[in-house]
């Protein structure tokens, strides 16, 4: 997923690695060039809206820059802020803002906009902003020091704050929200005519069909090389592929690896395959007493043949996951943790130790109650086949999973917002930083990004220590220990780290080859050749 919730999409659905044009940028840019991308549904033009998920995230990157963005090494780099510093106690971060920035309507960007975005939108619990729990967890308030300086006042240290400020944390224009009582019902802004400070601005919205953006000549980094970017609303992945092959679309994320050979056969198209900071998982709702027993969680993971699933569902484009910190984070990834090779016999033994015995129909039972798990899923990319395979693996050890398939928005509301589920397969796409506190901290259970509602004070303390640690070595030691604990305890049942497959028209040039989210932060550099 995309960020906190948007991560699943936000869920969860995620960041893809691209190499488009990064090494082969060549040819003469067309000053009137345009490109066409896809989105799965009508977007919401507000990065903090509770209704903005995977269909909105990348488009919002073109409209609403943050204080920071990522460089090629996925480290925070200047964007609307030019520099920053932290106090000795780690409880105050000061950001110096860029001079001369204007909103797309010509109004000046100032510290008041930053303070408004966080104090009046993100930090207001009653509004339920997307990712809001992540920020409320540490940020108390944002103070205006002067028109070009802000202070983030924290309740506890947050060493990765500049990294999170680069992750779908766009700034909103205070002047456009004057008199607005409910920012999520501000339809004129959120669905029709937003004002941003990014390289592009909205020119036309045709609901259910297209969103056209044109370059924002007020953009601080200079006039973008593309004249326009159009997003087509195409929910069906087969239809997306058809339009890519016909030349009507310039770039898609390939959710089905079976399509790769067909794309490679087209001389106008290219494929990029790369890893990203994404991990797929099965969440077990630990408000359910059955899943509070670690032996049950471990058994359910031992029962899943993950290498076989990677081979069949991903066609080999992935590797078995050991935790939330992916191998792309070379400094912090710890491979020396507890592993769960496919072992149905061990799964049955663990369940027996936990008191689950075969019933007359072959389904395990305890205290007269069968081990039946309600498992909702969404008709999105590979989630349904993943869920069906897990259902079969669990059936083989006497566990019955009852599957309900729904559309993506309904899934988000039921599973993520209401926590009305017992088990569900999804994924997180997160900042490339070992700080995973928003997804595991006990305070994020039930309402935040901790969707399994897992609570462990010892893990909480480790992740807090990681936020306080100064220096790479100290952070590495802490997060190695945290990964070992998570591998034993399994807050989530970790499935795999997928490789992201992106197909694009070779005429598209200028992307930096970082991650999809990061590449969209440098959209002013994109161009198409004449």
Automatic annotation (TrEMBL):
<dbReference type="GO" id="GO:0042597">
    <property type="term" value="C:periplasmic space"/>
</dbReference>
<dbReference type="GO" id="GO:1904680">
    <property type="term" value="F:peptide transmembrane transporter activity"/>
</dbReference>
<feature type="domain" description="Solute-binding protein family 5">
    <location>
        <begin position="75"/>
        <end position="448"/>
    </location>
</feature>
<dbReference type="InterPro" id="IPR039424">
    <property type="entry name" value="SBP_5"/>
</dbReference>
<dbReference type="GO" id="GO:0043190">
    <property type="term" value="C:ATP-binding cassette (ABC) transporter complex"/>
</dbReference>
<keyword id="KW-0813">Transport</keyword>
<protein>
    <submittedName>
        <fullName>ABC transporter substrate-binding protein</fullName>
    </submittedName>
</protein>
<comment type="similarity">
    <text>Belongs to the bacterial solute-binding protein 5 family.</text>
</comment>
<dbReference type="GO" id="GO:0015833">
    <property type="term" value="P:peptide transport"/>
</dbReference>
<dbReference type="InterPro" id="IPR000914">
    <property type="entry name" value="SBP_5_dom"/>
</dbReference>
<keyword id="KW-0732">Signal</keyword>
<feature type="signal peptide">
    <location>
        <begin position="1"/>
        <end position="25"/>
    </location>
</feature>
<dbReference type="InterPro" id="IPR030678">
    <property type="entry name" value="Peptide/Ni-bd"/>
</dbReference>
<dbReference type="Pfam" id="PF00496">
    <property type="entry name" value="SBP_bac_5"/>
</dbReference>
């Amino acid at each position: 997923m995309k960020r906190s919730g948007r991560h699943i999409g936000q869920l969860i659905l995620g960041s893809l690695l691209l190499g488009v044009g990064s090494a082969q940028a060549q040819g003469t840019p067309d000053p009137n060039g345009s490109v066409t991308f896809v989105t799965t549904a009508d977007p919401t033009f507000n990065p903090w809206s509770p209704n903005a998920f995977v269909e909105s995230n990348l488009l919002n990157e073109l409209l609403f820059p943050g204080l920071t963005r990522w460089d090629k090494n996925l480290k925070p780099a200047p964007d609307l802020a030019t520099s920053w510093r932290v106090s000795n106690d780690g409880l105050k971060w000061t950001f110096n803002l860029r001079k001369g920035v204007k909103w797309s309507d010509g109004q000046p960007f100032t510290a008041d906009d930053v303070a408004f975005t966080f104090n009046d939108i993100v930090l207001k619990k009653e509004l339920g902003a997307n990712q809001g729990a992540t920020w409320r967890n540490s940020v108390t308030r944002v103070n205006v020091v002067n028109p070009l300086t802000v202070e983030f006042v924290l309740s506890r240290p947050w060493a990765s704050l500049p990294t999170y400020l680069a992750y779908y944390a766009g700034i909103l224009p205070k002047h456009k929200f004057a008199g607005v009582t409910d920012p999520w019902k501000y339809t004129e802004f959120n669905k029709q005519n937003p004002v941003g400070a990014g390289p592009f601005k909205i020119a036309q919205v045709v609901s259910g069909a297209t969103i056209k953006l044109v370059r924002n000549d007020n953009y601080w980094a200079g006039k973008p090389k593309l004249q326009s970017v159009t997003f087509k609303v195409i929910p069906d992945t087969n239809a997306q592929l058809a339009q890519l092959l016909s030349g009507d679309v310039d770039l898609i994320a390939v959710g089905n690896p079976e399509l790769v050979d067909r794309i490679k056969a087209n001389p106008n198209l290219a494929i990029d395959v790369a890893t990203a900071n994404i991990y797929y998982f099965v969440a077990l709702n630990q408000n359910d007493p059955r899943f509070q027993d670690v032996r049950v969680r471990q058994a359910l993971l031992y029962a899943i043949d993950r290498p076989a699933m990677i081979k069949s569902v991903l066609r080999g484009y992935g590797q078995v996951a050991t935790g939330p910190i992916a191998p792309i984070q070379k400094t912090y990834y710890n491979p020396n943790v507890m592993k769960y090779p496919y072992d149905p016999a061990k799964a049955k033994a663990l369940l027996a130790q936990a008191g689950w015995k075969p019933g007359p129909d072959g389904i395990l039972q305890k205290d007269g109650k069968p081990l039946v798990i309600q498992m909702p899923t969404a008709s999105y990319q590979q989630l349904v086949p993943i869920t069906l395979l897990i259902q079969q693996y669990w059936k083989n050890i006497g566990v019955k999973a009852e599957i309900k398939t729904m559309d993506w928005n309904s899934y988000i509301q039921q599973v993520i917002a209401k926590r009305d589920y017992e088990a569900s397969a999804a994924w997180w796409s997160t900042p490339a930083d070992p700080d995973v506190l928003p997804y595991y901290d006990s305070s994020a259970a039930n309402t935040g990004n901790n969707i399994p509602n897992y609570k462990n004070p010892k893990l909480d303390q480790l992740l807090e220590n990681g936020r306080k640690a100064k220096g790479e070595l100290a952070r590495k030691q802490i997060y190695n220990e945290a990964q070992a604990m998570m591998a034993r305890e399994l807050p989530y049942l970790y499935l795999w780290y997928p490789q992201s497959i992106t197909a694009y028209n070779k005429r598209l040039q200028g992307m930096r080859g970082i991650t999809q989210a990061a590449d969209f932060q440098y959209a002013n550099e994109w161009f198409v050749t004449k």
